[in-house]
Amino acid sequence: MGIIASLAPEDVTGQKDLLANHVEILTKIRAYSIAVTQTEIHTILNPPPSWFNTLNTNLGEARKHAEMWTNVLEPAITSTIPQAIIDIGNRFDVGTDSMLKVLDETHDNPTSEQIETIQKDFNWILKHIDEQAKNISELQGQFTEFQVNAGIDLTNLTTGNNSIQAAQLDDQRIINDLTADIAEQNAEIAKDNAVILASGLAGGIGLFVGVAVVGLGAVSAGPGAPVAMVIGAFIIVGSIAEMATVISIYAGRLADAQNKLNSDTAELDEEQKQLASLTVMNTSITKLVDLNKDMAQSLVDIADWWAMMKTKLTSVKKDLDEAAEAIHSGDPKKVKPDWEEFEMDIKVAKKDWADFASFARGMQTTVTTIQNQVIDVKNPKAA
């Protein structure tokens, strides 16, 4: 046998990069999940547009799935990865301290009892590796369900007559109509103001005045009503009495136009908000589905690493079992392991695991710090 297999973690540098990438993906998924949970749509139309109820229902389902990420799945992932590395680092530190103490006492010639103690300490470490590999496998199953649901949400929200895109087109049409109507009301207000101003001035200077507005047209409230006529660039009013009546008529038209303008402006503001919400929703659910692919691959890579470490440390167990068997048998032909080499490997592995655990602890701090700084975009002051 000679050399016992190494206990050192495999490719620590590469695994640090993998873990950092995992945390980055996790925080991005969190951001887009929160965006989905906080997206709401409303309608100013009564009855609502044909797409509204179905789209709102589909959005409600997407919100439930996003809340599952923020409330259940992400905490589970964070408590397993990178916590698993932190835990194995702590367990490795305690277990190998005991192993090194025994090896230091053996002087490269351990007894059966001493090897049995080393085996127990090592199996305690290996048991944790096996447990974490199972936990990660379970997480993959939970995440797969979330990934499938998010994909269904994307399909429901972005295809068909009740999609986000259909709603955006409808909202944009309403915005265009409101914008045109607002322009029309502004023109009406400008015209009415000009007539009122010109009519008022006309009363003081012989009942006609030149104004900088052409094409105001004529207004008449019926048979015998006063008439304000535009001739060229001038407004003509028949008398002071008629002038007052004309002013009151245009003042009424001005008030109506102003009220319509206020109403249109309020509706435009609501439609623009809804269009913005739809845009945010579309971006968030699309990004979420894309990031889920990255997270799925990240979990596969992490699970593969744990499986590799389980295989590697199982080889160590096999070597220790063979060493114990060789001593029990008393057969001088069986090659004894190099216990000094094994002791040196443990010391190196101990440092590597401690370094990896320290890095994992930093990554976990990053995640929890971001979690604690999340702002409710609907109520920023509450955060």
UniProtKB/TrEMBL annotation:
Keywords: Membrane, Transmembrane, Transmembrane helix. The chain crosses the membrane at residues 194-221, 227-251. InterPro entries: Enterotoxin_cmpnt, HBL. Gene3D superfamilies: 1.20.1170.10. SUPFAM superfamilies: Bacterial hemolysins (SSF58100). It holds the Pfam family Bacillus_HBL. It comes from the Bacteria. GO terms for cellular component: membrane. This is Uncharacterized protein.
